[in-house]
Give the backbone structure.
Amino acid sequence: MSSYSAQVKATRRGFLLKMAFKINKIECCFCRKRISPEEAVSLVLDSILIHHKDLNHSNDEDSNLAFAHRKCHASYHRRIERELFYKGE
Ligand SMILES: [Zn+2]
Ligand SMILES: [Zn+2]
């Protein structure tokens, strides 16, 4: 089981790095701070991740993916969840 998740992680990392170099201009989609490819390579899966703009994690279209700082990403999702929660009340 653990080897499977390690494999998934490795695939994911390779995918993220490919994205990083393909886009070339990488920025956090929330705070708009620029992320260099070198930074992305060393930080990917630690403090930078890929955000799915339509919140559908199986939609891996390039246009649906955006780099984001883990911190910015977390506060975005917290806000979204709160908004959904209050709408439901
Ligand atoms: Zn950010
Ligand atoms: Zn997200």
Remarks:
- The beta strands are 26-27, 34-35, 48-52, 65-69.
- The longest strand covers residues 48-52.
- The radius of gyration is 14 Å.
